[in-house]
Amino acid sequence: MARGERTAEQIVEQHLQLLHKEQPRLNAAVATFDDLALSQARSPRVGALSGLPISVKETFGLAGHAITAGSMRMPPLVAERDAVAVARLKAAGAIVIARSNVPEFAMAGETENPRFGRTNNPLGLDHTCGGSSGGEAALVAAGCVAAGLGSDILGSIRIPSSFCGVVGFKPSSSAIPKHGSWPDLDGLFTDSWLAAGPIARSVRDVRLLYQVLSEHKLPAPSPLAGCRLLMPADFPLSCHDRAISEAVAVAAESLAAAGMSADRECLGDVRGWYRRMSRYLAWELTPLLKSGLTTADGERFSVWRETLARLAGRGEVYDGLYRLLLIAPLLRYRRVASAAAARSLLEAARVSVRQRLGADGILLLPTIGVLAPAHGEMNRLSLRPGVNAVMTPLTLCNYLDLPAVSVPAWRHRDPATGMVPGVMLACAPGAEGLLLDVALVLESSIGRPPAVFGGANTGSHASDGIRSNAADPQQVTSYGD
Asked: Domain residues of the chain, as ranges?
């Protein structure tokens, strides 16, 4: 557009065409806005994102449209106005062409629900795209939109970004307003675990969207010499695929070569933090989940009634949500004092790790310990009691409220499945500029996705898509310790 080669209307129309072509195989969008989007593209609003087609997660309010969270039980919530984050994107000229699919109640690492069905991974249709911002990552990865807006409470931006081979940025919880999005956790400790953030196909694009969404201008990228790279020691971590460990090792080498001072250091009692995190999450969210599943006519949700219905093949809620509701009562604190003590411990851990990172420290970890698994496998891997060493890197950044970005390691793509590992960087709040500077260098060493959109190499970030050259999608990852 800047060079006058294509108009906004042409770009939006091209993306809409691709979206409708990809939708039957991906099922990533729950609604599209063809006529409105094309009308807006004819005279796009001036701004940093002028004329760019984007999508937003179904849990963000769009004026006149309902938030369903993929549930057939929850009464739809019709938004009177756009969520603040959506309004900021539109004010910068972005054009919303679609809303994206989520797991029911946005509480699972796979994207499937009773209302809209299952979303597939563009890199291999037999694999999950992750969740809960799974529809967003799939649309971005397939080139159907230039970028997307997601949210993240326990990895919900970074899991699907890693699984689909795109860049996902979870800022600190207060960096981007969440007003007008679902769920509303205002007043709860877990609200400080939840963040809105962008998904795109390059660090450059994520950086641009973050500045629009946060209304915070970042300084120009600067050299990394003298900055610290922290690789946690004694960290409970399980990587089920060699590609993940290899990508993290190369990341460490390349960042050290860029001038960062690498060090291994114990962050603290991560195992203990994880146990308290999972129990505290169950403490605050279980009542909200059950309340949200109350139907419009007042019928309260019963796990036991749902269990009997599922045995008869008539279950009402998504499997991932059902599993969560089964284990949550076992994890949940029984006493207010116990929950308060857990909160105090996690808040102290938050202060300690932030101080250790300071203004010049960057944490390096894999995004998650698995490549995108076959459909159904992620729920079994993630929704279980105990310290889950596959998930520890993700959750750490939520309960400590650390900005974190997942960068795809395309040069380490698994040859058997075509899936791409993610490498994660995190920082203390206030060091987002450095975090994204490091991510730019990391991206150059571990690889960006192929610059292909609509079959032609465009050479541009915000219009680039991914053409999958994955192996036979029937092949799936085999896991072992």
From this structure: 8-272+337-446
Q: Which CATH superfamily is domain 8-272+337-446 in?
A: Amidase signature (AS) domain (3.90.1300.10)
Angle (nearest 5°) at CA 242 between 260 and 426: 35
For residue 195, what are the CA distances in angstroms to 85, 181, 382?
11, 11, 20
Quick check: 210 and 433 in contact, CB under 8 A?
Answer: no
In tens, the pLDDT along 49-104 reads 999 999 999 999 999 999 999 999 999 999 999 999 999 999 999 999 999 999 99
In 3D, which of 55, 68, 63, 67 has the Cα closest to residue 26? Answer: 55
Residue 179 neighbours by CB under 8 Å, 6+ apart: 83, 84
First-to-last alpha carbon distance for the chain, in angstroms, is 50
Q: Which residue has the tokens 């599922």?
A: 310
Hunting for tokens 């995004």 — which residue is that? 367
**CA triplet 315, 374, 143: central angle to 5 degrees?**
105
Instruction: Supply the Cα-derived Rg of the chain in whole angstroms.
Output: 21
